[in-house]
Every structure is written in C-alpha cells, then in structure tokens.
## 1
Amino acid sequence: MPLLPLLLASLSRHSSSYSSISTPFSLLPPLGLILRRSMATAAASSEPISPANTRVGWIGTGVMGRAMCSHLISAGYTLTVFNRTLSKAQPLLDMGARLADSPSSLASQSDVVFTIVGFPSDVRHVLLHPSTGALSGLRPGGVLVDMTTSEPSLAAEIHSAAAAKGCHSVDAPVSGGDRGAKSGTLAIFAGGDKGVVDRLNPLFALMGKVNYMGATGKGQFAKLANQITIASTMVGLVEGIVYAYKAGLNVESFLSAISTGAAGSKSLDLYGGRILKRDFEAGFYVNHFVKDLGICLKECQSMGLALPGLALAHQLYLSLKAHGEGNLGTQALILALERMNNVSLENLGASNPAAP
C-alpha cells in the first residue's frame, strides 16, 4: 500500500478517538507515534527482507544457536550477538559478528531479534526485563523471534508487550537437533501474525523449513506436541536396543535392518549410531528435554489430558538428571535402561557377549 494512503488511513482510524468525549486525551497515542508506526509498517511491507535492508540480532549462541546464526552471517546479514558466556560467541565474532553487552543494546542495533536460550525464565529475562531486555531497546516496527522451546502463555505475554510498543513477535521453536542446525534443515514451528511470519521467510529459509501453525502460542504448542512424540519414540528406540542386545543380536545390524522398515525414525537416524559408539555429547541436553516435557505435563494438566507415555519418558529422563547426567544428550536415555536391567552395552562389538 502506498505510504500516503496508509498514513491517512491510520490517522482516520484514530481521528474518532481524538474527538471522543469518553476517551481522556492523555490516554490516546501521540500523533508522532502513530506516524512512526505507520511509516514503519509501510516500510516493512514495501520490500523483501535482505542483507541490504535488515539488521539481525541473535541472543543465545549455544549448541543450536551458534550453528543457526552462522548461516545468517554466511548469507551476508549484519549480525549482532549476545551471550552470557563470551567463549560460546567467539566463533561467530571470528566470522564477523558484532558483540553487544546487553540484550537491550543488541536490539537497538537490530530490526529482527532472535532468541534461543535455555528456559522460560531466561526468555523472560532477555526479552522483557524493563531495563536490559531486548524489547526495551527495540524500535517500533521491530520483530522479536523466540526460537526457544517455552511456554505458550509466555509467547502470548511477549506478543502483548511487543504490540504495546508498536513491535511484533513470533514464537518459532525448532526441531532437528544439532545436525539439523548445522545443515540448515531444521523444522521451524511458527506462531503469530502470518504476514510477519511470511515476511521473515528469507531468514527462516537459511535455517530450515518454516511451518506456520497459527496465532501466537501455536508455534510453542506444536513444538510441545513434537517433544511428546519424540519422547515415546526415544523410549521405544532404547528399549528395542536393550532387547536386541539381550536376545544376542548384533545390535548394529539390527538397527540397520529396522531403519528402512516401519520402525525407522529420525531419532534412529540421529541417535542409533551415537548410542552404539557411547557418544553422549549433547546435540540437545537432557536438562532441556526434562524442561520441555515438564511444560508438556503442565499443559496436559490444564487440558485434562492423560498421556502416560509422556509421563514415563519424563520420569526416565529425570532419573538421568538425578545421576548427574543432565548435560549429556538425549540419547543418554540408554543409560537409564541399562541401569534398570543391569546390563551394559559399553563393550558392545561385532560379537555380542550377551548371545546365548
């Protein structure tokens, strides 16, 4: 829409408010703010996002965030990053990213701010803290994109706070693990205004495939449903491995055989080989999965849902955390099943010592 008609339309929408006897003048938005918001909206809809017109901020450069952010730098975007642990941001600084000393400072230098941090409390702090949060430094028309797996209610709170400042927000958690982040093949679950999500697609496309799930919070609901599915799949995978081991099968051959059948899954592809190699390095932390499944259970309680597979998986992953294994990857679930059955696949080779 041309700028002038858009401005006139905006002024027309507010003119009745200014003439209304029932609305105190002091509570109405200042004319300058209306103009700035309208101009920002007009500019935002006039040309596609590109490195030439969009500055990006990134908060959270851990296992996932660092790889995702690197794709944006490689595509030529101007990136400003913030992370509490500087060493985790250093590889991105070496690629040309700028460093901010606070989320607020980062946002003041950005048009779109991405976050992917650990817990809902972290999301709230880096985005909504009144003095240091990103929203406090974001200009009207800016966009917050939270890619953390978090609470749908928090996504709604962020949306309301952003809208009050003339900004936008999208909840866009991801699935695909560290390999998906590195290869740019993540599944992205987006909730929010569809026009804003569509406009962000040039950025999302560098990280994976965006799937529009609906209004604010629906991206988080979709990711939680994804985690529920993965949880029971992981339990089935490690139970199958332990059973095959006790039955005397060559477990590596067994996993290869089932990978092309009905039991094949992304979890098997990502983690089957790692389990056999005792590679428990985190592509996704046990601690974070416990958090995700806890949020799922909380939502189930409010919905009146009974999901026993989810509850079982949560208990098994909690047992890993109780053993001090929270910083291992989710494939470490095999350790819980080994302890329960007094077996160990640690010395597993081509010849299965459990063979009868």
Note: The chain is about 55% helix and 10% strand.
## 2
Amino acid sequence: MAAVVEAKPNESAAELLVFNLGSHTTTVETSNKSSPPKPMFIVSPIEQGSYPVILFFPDTCISNNAYSQLFQHISSHGFIVVSPQLYSCMPPCGNNEVDFAAQVTNWLPKGLKSNLPENVEADLNKLVLSGHSRGGTIAFALSLGYACKTRLDQFSALVAVDPVGGTTKCTELNPSILSNNPFNLSFPVTVIGTGLGGVTKCIIPCAPESANHEKFYERSKAPKAHFVTKEYGHMVVLDDSSSNLRSWVMSKCMCAKGKGPREAMRRTVGGIAVAFLKDLFSGNLKNGVFMKIVQDPSVAPAVLDDVDFVQARNYVDFGLPVLWGKIQGRPFHDLYSIN
C-alpha cells in the first residue's frame, strides 16, 4: 500500500534549502512485493528519474516506519530510502543481524524495482549505507565485511545517526565493532551525534560515551565528517508520534530528549545527509552546500557543536574509491582538496 506526500518547500526559510522539503513529491511503499528477505519500508520520489539509494537500518526495538518524516525529507531531495525491519525487538545473537542486512543488500538489484513507482529507477551505483543507533553499527559492520556474502565495493558512502556500539555481551558483534581501530573503509563517512545521548534518563544512557558516535568517528578514515546536535537526545530523530506502540514508548520515555522541537532535529539530520550525498555524487564536496554547513554550522535549524571535516590528503588516502569512481565515471579526484 502506497501513500503520497507532496513536497512543500519553504522558500522563505533563512536556512539552506537542504534543511527544508525538496522539490520531489514522495510516495511511501509498505508492501512486500518480489519477496524481500525482510519487511520493507520504502520512500521514493514519484517523478520519473534515476535516484541514489539509501539503505537505512533502524535502532533496536524501533519500527522502520517510525522514521517516516526523516525519510520523506531526504527522499524529497531526490533519494530512494529503503529501510528493512531486520528483527522485531531484540537483536539476534552474534552476527546474524549483519547477515540479514546483507541479504537485503543482495535483494536490491532484482527486487527493488517492483516496489518503486513507474518510471522511477534505483541507481545502485550510488548505494549509501545508513542507520540510527544500533542500525548505525550494522551499517558500519556491513561495510567492514562482517556479513558472509556481500560485495564491499558496491557501497559509495555511509551516514550514521548517533551510532552506538554493543554495550553488553548480548548485543556485541563478533568481533566487537569498536575493536576495529581504525575502520578500513573505502568511501566517505559522515557521523551525526547527539549532545544528550550520554545523559541517563532510565537505568543507563541510550548512547553511553564508551560506545557512542565519537568512537565511530575516531575510527573512520578520511574523508570523514562529524556533527553533534548539542541540545538533542538519542531518539529525537524519530517521528513526532509513531503508530507503533513499542517505538512510541522508546521514543518518548527511554532517552533524554532535550528542549528543542523534533522537527528541527530531523531537518538538521536530513539536511546534512542530503548536502553530503548530493555534493559527493556531483563531485563538489569541497565547494558545495555541505562545506557551507561545515564552515558555518549556524545555518542549521538545530544547534551544531563539535563540527569537524577531515579531507583526504592524497591519492593514497582514496584507495578503492579512486578506482571505483573511475569505473563508474564519477570524478572522485575532484571531490576533495589534495594537499
């Protein structure tokens, strides 16, 4: 069943346009056509065209449709967002969760098309990994080769939203994701953290400092970027009100929230992701909208702190992306300044 959401860009907004809805009208697809390995929540533009694909993994116990407002923001700027429900509540043991993620990735080339509007094509040469909290960990793990059957050279970028590594023996991957130092990734990474993720509201903080966004950013290789939404908590990126009771409880009750409106948080996360990916794929990462946000974080709807962007220093730093960029005809040599 599909639902259509019309784009309503706010032309008078003082912020950059990436922080507002884009020009594309989006549709939401929740059916299970072409037998996907896991239930899907797919948000796509309806206008004819070929669009990059973002594979987004939800947090523990969170429904994939609880991010619908964030997904619609991103998709309205010309992206297809695919979010699989890898499990219903608690993560499976060991690395099975990453294997599920790999199964979804392998399904995309043949299965995604039937879940998209007519005349809309998925550009899988621009396949982005993403996720929130535990889902961010799975995005990193998939890109690091934790799954048995997946091609690492098919990914173009990674955007992690307040990623959290396993904090108990039951939730650890094998080996622990944060035992990798550094992460040997072959593509650019953006990490968006929260300032209040480490604040305890219930028994333990939702994003403890020992396994939070800073640890993932530190281990990532250049080119990489880091943003922290100073006044927001771990779950504020979710919808204002989720139809899934478990997601609603997690969103409202489990984590420190902060005082700002959820909309500002979602617009900030969505805008950073859109600017990063659009400039990356257009070969303008060092001079485009993304760099404007890095240089002047005050343009974002939410207060940003600890903004950092480390560019690749030379061709050795690029590694595989240079070769892969040439194969795809994408000018990776133009993406970053060469010192």
Note: DSSP finds nine helices and ten strands in the chain.
## 3
Amino acid sequence: MWMHNVAAAVMLMPVATGLLQRLPPPSEQSELVNKFSRAVVLTVVYAVPIGGMSTLTGTGVNLILVGMWKSLEPGAKPISFNTWFFYAFPVAFVFVICFWCILCLIYLRKGSGRALSSYLSKAHLKRELEALGPMSFAEKMVLSVFGLLIILWMTRRITDDIPGWGAFFNGLVGDGSVSVMVAVLLFIIPNRKQEGEKLMDWNECKKLPWNLILLLGAGFALADGVQASGLADVLSRAIDFLENAPYLAIVPAVTLISSIITEFITSNDATATLIIPLLYHIARTMHVHPLLLMIPGAMATEFAFLLPTSTPSNVVGFATGHIEIQDTLKVGLPLKLTGIAVLSLFMPSLGALVFGTNNGVQGMTNIPLLRS
C-alpha cells in the first residue's frame, strides 16, 4: 500500500523464500508441500499489485491517473490522497480476500497442515524472530519517519467538509510537499552506526527508479498532445457508436481490454499512459463522467497476472524457481476475472459516492449527469 510494487516485491520475496528454506528440496517434496511452496511465492507476486491499488503512492499507475485527470480537466476537483483511499482500499480489501480464497482452493488441500507441521511451526518461527535481536536505532527511526509520512498524508485533508492540517497553509501544501519533507529528514537523522552517517545518503538515493518520474511526465505530455493535436476529436468521432451503450456493459469491457493490453506491455505505467486519455474521450462521447471509465480502466492495468514478463513483480516470483507459467495461468485467470467483477461492481456504487460522479463536476464542460 505504501511502497511501489516492484520495491515491495523485491523486499518481501526473500522473506517468503527464507520461509521455504526450512522445507525439503523441491525434488524431495510431497505434492502437498510443493503446492504450499508455490502458493507462498504466488502470494507475494499477486498481493503486491492488489495492495498497490489502495493508495495513490502504491503504484505509478495511480499517480499517472491523478496527473492526467488534472491535466485533462484542470478546473475539476482534484483526486486527493484520502478520496482515493476511501474508494480504493475497500476495493483492494475485497479483492485480496477473493485472492486468498482462490489460492486456498487451488493449492491448499486437506492435510496440508499435517504435511507441513514437521518443517514449519510457531516454535520455529519464534526462534528465528528472537535470533534477529532487538530493533536498532536506525530501524526505529525509519519506521517512525514512515509512520509520520502516512499520518501526514491521511490527515492533510480528511474530507470535503472536514479540513485537515493542510488548511493552515491555505492550500499551498500538497502530498508531494509532505513526501519531500520526510525525504529530507532521512538525510538529516543520523543512523548511529558510524560517525557522520545518516539514514539515507546520495549513493543510495541514486538507486531509486528515476526513470519512473520521467515516465510520469511523459504520460502527462502525451495527454496534452492528444488534446492539442486534434487526435481526441478523431477518436471521439470514431467511437460515436458507444454513445447509446449501457454504462454497466461498458465498464466490464473497459477493464477487460485494459487487463489484456497490460499482459503484453511489460510496464503497467506505460499501459496506463496509453489508455487513460482514450478512456477520457470515450466517456465524453458516451456523455458520462470520465472518472467512471478512467478509474476502472487504470486500475485494471494492474491485472497483469498471466505471463511471466507482464510486470516486474511476476519476474521477481519466477526468479525464485518455485513457480512456473502454469501456476500463473491457473491462478491469474480467475484472479483477473474476479478483479474485473469487483471493479465493475464498486465503481458505479462506491465510486460514484466517493468521487461524486452523479453530481457533475465543477469546471467540466459538456458532461451531464450519469445516465440512469
């Protein structure tokens, strides 16, 4: 929820594979133990993108959506951190429960607990936890700064009626300002390991995915280009036939198309950059609020669940050697269909309530209320 998908997968996969090191080698594993091993790795692979949907900072796709919305409709109310969270967290919560059920039905058979009891138990895990020792000063400070960041994000603006601490700055401070301030703190607070060392230094900072920032900017430029070049008008005329299509039929189609495209473009961010401006103009043609298509279409680009190279988190899972393509196909297909169903149900209901898409949008032109 709070880290980029790839970083979260890279951080958590060693935890998962470390757990599996207590099991016998794959060639000596029983069927039940082998299925459990696959399930543990798949948990990290798929839970990462599902959790990333919850917050604006969880994945680059969400940031691209918010940036393009501001670019395409500068007069409309922007999507705040809390607004997104109120909608996306329930979606992700329901989705992750469905994922757990799918994983258990496919990989955890009756008797798995007895088969694993001699290798994994609470006593084993407790001993390993005690072996780590107490948290260091640096670990405590990073956790504290991380917690401070989350609190500031969540309380800058509570709701439209309940102002947060951001009201003291007359709207001059945004979520980005909080991120920069917390990042600066990491360069100031010492780690108490060596004299003069801080929690973060520039050598470590240079390893950050700066190409992601360039990709975000390119996406905003592409959205402006679609408008300025007249391509938006061409696309709108080409899809006039959608004007009378029922919205409840269009949303599943949009999420399905997005989730298929993302399987073949290895960057979810690139897929979102390509498809979000198109969805905006499709919505204009249909005379519905653009967010009703843009949000599920953007979130569906995270459903790259089938192929090994569809998204970097899949690559991290395959690199462990515990899963094969048949595993991602077996779990990914029902998971993709479940995600499409969840988005199709939540966007017209909870999404319309949170984003106010049934009440029109201040500053938007030619967008009437959602047709019944």
Note: Residues 325-355 form the longest helix (31 residues).
## 4
Amino acid sequence: MVTMRVSALWTALVLLLIPGTANNTGRFANATLVRLSEYLSAGYKKGVRPVRNWRNCTMVAIDLMVYSILSVDEKNQVLTTYIWYSLYQEWTDEFLVWNPEDFDDVNQMSIPTANVWVPDILINEFVDVGKSPDIPYVYVTHYGLVRNYKPIQVVTACTLNIYNFPFDVQNCSLTFQSWLHTLNDIDLKLMRSAEELKVDKSVFMNQGEWELLHVLSKYKRFSLDNIDSYAEMKFNVVIRRRPLFYTVNLLLPSIFLMVMDLVGFYLPPDSGERVSFKITLLLGYSVFLIIVSDTLPATAIGTPLIGVYFVVCMALLVISLTETVLIVRLVHKQDLQPHVPQWLKHLVLERATVLLCIRNKHSLFMDNILQEISSIRGFLEKRDESRDIAKEWLQVGYVLDVLLFRVYLVAMLAYSITLGTLWSVWQYA
C-alpha cells in the first residue's frame, strides 16, 4: 500500500509539472486515457531502446498468418506473390509501465506507433513495396508489453522451380531480422509453437490458384564478421498449385489430338485421306501450341516438363505423318513396280506377320478383289502378273503399316506412363 501511494504521489507530481495538465478542464476533464497518455509520454525517448539496464536484450516475439496468395511471377523468379500476411510483433517496453489503480483500472491502451520505440525488423527478401494499409497504432499493456499487429502485402524474391508445372510445389522464404541491432540488443522468438504455426490455416482464403500447405519456421543466429552476432527468424511458406485449370485447358486437348492421330492409323494405307487427315492434325496442334504458349511459364534457367511434353507430341505427329507418307508411296501405282524381293517377302510377309499376330498373309484385305481377278487369269496373264505385284506390295505395305503403328503406339504409351509417373511422384513427394 505504501508503494502504491508513493506511485500515485509521483504521478500527481509529474502531471503538475507537465504544462497544461495542472488545469485539466473542459472536454478533457477527468479523461483517464488523456491523463494516462500524458503520463506515458512525459520524458519518453522513442529513439532509445526501452530498457533500464542496457545489458538486457529486448526480446521480440514474431508471429505470421497467411491470408491470401494473389499471384506468382515465374518468369521474373519473384514471389510477386503479393501475399497478404498478418504480422504480429510483441516486445516489452520498460518505460511504458503504469499502475492500473491510478488510472481507473485501465490495463491497456492504444498509442500512436510514431510515438514509441519500434524494433527495426525487416524482411530480407523484399524486392518491392506492397500496398499495405497503414495501421498507425500499437497496443500497450500496463506492464509494458507492446503489441504491433498489422497486415502487410509483400513482394519478395523467391527461387521458383517450374519444372513440374502445373503440378509444382513452391517453397518461398521470408527472413525477419533486425537490420542494425546485434543479438546483444534485439533477439527474436516465436509467439506460438512451431507446430501450431505450421498447421494453422484458419485465416487463409482458399479460393485461388495456390493452396497453402504449411508454414515452417526456423530460428538462427549468424555472424558476418565473427565479432557481432545477429538473430533471424525464417518462415518458409510452402504452397502448391491447383492443376485443374491447366489440366482441362492444356493437357486434355493435347491428349485428344494424340488419340485422334492413333485413330487415323485405321484408315486404309492406300487411301490418300490418311495423309490429309494427319496433316490437318499437325496444323491443329501447331495452332494449339501458339495459343497456349502465353500460358506456360518461362524462365531463362529452365523449361517446364509440360513444354517438353508438347514438343515430344509434336515430334510424334511429324513421325506419324512421315510414316503415312512412306506407306502411301510404297503402295501407290504397284503395277508399275517390280516384284517384291524374296528377302523382303520372307522378312515382312512371313516373319513379321507371325510377330505381329496377323492372320494368314493370303487372307489380307485385298484377297477378295484379287480372287475375282484370278478368274480371268487364263485370258489376261500379263494383267495377272501386274495384279500379283500389286498384291505383294499391298501386303508389304499393310504389314509395315501395322508394325510401325504398333511401335508408335508402344512409344506413346511408354512416354505417357513415364510422364504420369514422374508427375505423380513429384506431386506427392
């Protein structure tokens, strides 16, 4: 009780010594917060670290809450993530202490930030000033705890790995540290436990392209000159892209065009329609790549795997068209060509048909026509010979067409399975 009375007397004395407070009349009469504000500001030096013993370190507690991820700029390797963060800082100011009983039991009050000492905590990865709202006040409790809660919009540098686009996971860091003060003056700590901070998504707006996985935190002490040490708190914001939009607009159209290319192999090899069909597909895929080129992320240090996928698909379409041209050339105007060499007949019509499980080589799709022609073979021997030549070349062309088609199909399946497996592994790694 004696201590409280002495404190009250000192408070009254200070208020008397402050100009304008002795006759506190008018609209400020009996205004407790005004009296408390004048009491706290009397003789306060905001440029001095608020400790009575200079050897004591000011401990600043930091907390981080992610509200939204607005965008990511892969091309410039910048977390133009315009991310909204709610940054919480707390520290103890030994000069902002009062007895609540002397001020109508006021336990805390707001004070202009410009009037109190604030630690120089910065984010190392800053590359641009975000459009953050100005919060001009901090909260102070009667025992000197200062709470600086503010939302900030940050634009930070981040090394983005776009190889797995659109199934990529990005890990961007935010490093908080005092720009000037050493560890002897300012130290950092987490306001909450690291595990609680990691899983907290309570305020995250989960409607955009990016999904927040977790926020990792790590405290570190480092020295630049082996003399003075500094404290830093690093937060790793791990985000994952939602691939549905890119799957529907990029992958599925490409897959549909490749499926149509496979269907084109069922057109007769001696039909000119197959060539025009595949040329149309190739032109359509070229237009598709021009349209999606602006959608794909591009950097100077790498290309996403999906870009390689599109290039390989284009190459497969070119190979498919080349195979079709060769087969059509092979079976065109057979009556003007010589007989099929025996080695080629043995290799293609006997060995390859067994390997490809093609039924009797004499029961190919031209046999019915050739059987009708053979009825007049006795009268048109020379004509029969040319028909036999045409039959042989058609048989060779048919078998080679089936062989190349199956090789092409196996290559596409192997490529698709490999790509799908890699994306699955990266997505759940």
Note: Confidence is low (pLDDT under 50) at residues 1-10, 12-25.
